[in-house]
Amino acid sequence: MTAEAATRSTHPPFDPELAAGLATLPIPEIGSASLDQIRTIIAEGLPGRPVPDLTVGGALAESEITVPGPDGAPDITLLVLTPTTGTGPWPAIFHTHGGGMVIGNRRLGVDGFAPLAAEHGAVIVSVEYRLAPEHPHPAPVEDSYAGLVWTAQHADELGIDPDRILVAGGSAGGGLAAGIALMARDRGFPHLTHQILIYPMLDDRFITASSQEVVGDAPWDRDANEFGWTALLGADRGGPDVSPYAAPARATDLSGLPRTFLDVGNAELFRDETLEYAQRLSAAGVVVDLHMWGGAFHGFEGFVPHARVSQSAVAVRNEFIARALAG
Amino acid sequence: MRELIGLIGAVDDDAAGALRVIAYFDTLVERGASIGDFVRGAAAQAGCAAGFADRSRGQVVRADAAGRPLDPVPPEQVSTVEVLDDLGAQVWLERVGTPSVVDAMVLERFAAGVRITLERTRDRDRVGPALRVLLDGQAEPEQRRAAADRLGLTGPATVLAAAPLAGGADGLPRGTGRLATRIGRVHAIVRSDLDATAELDGWRIGIGRAADLAHLHESWAQALVALRTTSDGAPGEPGATVVRYADLGGLAVVAEQISAVAAEVADVRALDAVAATHPWALGTLDAVIRHLTVRSAATELHVHHSTLQERIVHLRRELGFDVDSPTGRQRAALALVLRRLRNSGDLIGS
Lengths: 327, 350
What we know:
- The structure holds two protein chains of two kinds.
- In chain A, 33% of the residues lie in helices and 18% in strands.
- Chain A is an alpha/beta fold.
- In chain A, strand 6 (194-198), helix 7 and strand 7 (259-265) form a beta-alpha-beta unit.
- By secondary structure, chain B is α+β, with helices and mostly antiparallel strands.
- Chain B folds into three domains: 12-123, no CATH class; 135-248; 258-350, Arc Repressor Mutant, subunit A.
- Helix content of chain B is 47%, strand content 13%.
- In chain B, the strands form two sheets. Chain B has a five-stranded mixed beta sheet with strand order 6-7-5-8-9, covered by helices on one side. In chain B, strands 2-1-4-3 form a four-stranded antiparallel beta sheet, covered by helices on one side.
- In chain B, strand 8 (203-207), helix 6 (216-228) and strand 9 form a beta-alpha-beta unit.
- The N and C termini of chain B lie far apart (59 Å).
């Protein structure tokens, strides 16, 4: 963080509906003091709040598998959702959840993909990776990659077509999806058809304009981002020795990556790193779809789903994923 | 981070629910939200479908609790309605089953927000047509008077004609007040202060003479004439970007009589040619004819006076007359004006 960094937000104004929605929502302060409480709330849900039905009314069957983690590391759990009608092999969405590398679990955010899997016939696999700061890099990304490798190696028993696996995630999950796509390329396995990177967390360096623009008035602000990256990387954050698997913006070679979908808010911290990633992927010869939504903050479509911009963003994203699953 | 706040914010009681409704609608009002924003907001806050109807236009807007649009037809059953009688509009909730404790508050805030939006947008919709009549010299005096009444104008005013500078945005300029509309490619702005000045960032402006209500169309015509003589502010283009008709003197007659096509005389084409190859040419010419001495012109241009002498020699060769002589200055000044009139063809038509 530079000394002259802004003390107040300087991002573009929020869309009116998103601003109204934000005014009704408390913005949790992410830090070591609140970590346990936030993790508990995410794990248990709140009284009176319906638990998302990941089976989409029974169209998907839910199961969990314990599979080997990275070498020398504990086993990991995979949440698997499989269509209950029709026969595979199905395409697969390998999902890495969000939560700034420090919170969340394998169920978080899966409800955004489950209806697509139900409608278009796909298997969802969502990985329970270890969280920072208790488990810093490389635990989250190596756990995620191990889950991906196991999924591809056991495609047969999961009813998955191993040639039709895509990775997807939002926020930190978008960063992890980008990270395991780089690993899959570099280690030669598995083959991925697409990476769906939803306002991804890609860069630990705070060198873009947008990385300084959001302070305290929207989800995932500068302080939260600093907390998340420091939890993941410790003293290495922002320094010369950070792996591109932890911070994909660090990757110097983006060629040979799968077809990419990116979307991001115009008034969020991850704006510029997302735009730059899209630009560099394109220059490296990757086919990229990029959508930036005006006046949108981080996670806007989840926080204010009824807003018109949220509906547009979800429709565009879902249409892409539907095509990706069909292709 | 998706859903996180939603999960945490779900700690709920009646008071918190009411506060959320207030915070939501207050923010929409502050941000000048649209009717659709209010309909979706009401539906989301109440957790049931909501709707709006404008009888005068036969317009219906409905949304379900997820904000998705519903068929724009009046529903068979509504649970609660708030009628905005003076505006010919109504808003409602389509609650099925037990009403929520927030229903009454949602409806009240929904109605208040829609009222503000309707008053604002209808004002905007009414102003444009009325202004176009008021400023139309072909309209009957009676029509113009009625238009002035509709606009709430009571005394003399000044009309401004505004167009974007080169490379500028083409929306309605900010800070113009409510009496503004687009006529052709130019924005007409009526100001009730008689000595109207205008500093609109990114805009070139002509200002007519103050006139009483019966003669505002003349002020508009004058503003257009003045606008034709402004510079478009492009790099290398000299001249003022804001011009008052009253300051034009005899030039007003020239501008009124000479079309964009007629203005393209040989001297104008010569200016085009020299400007195309020498970015400094028009600015230098403009400085030379405005200053008594080469030295003071050179000071303004931030060049050495010997450099300026070389430029003057060059201009003399390119234009075919001595720009530094009294008659040459007049000829050059007229050529610069004619060139702006010629360029105004894109703006106003020739």
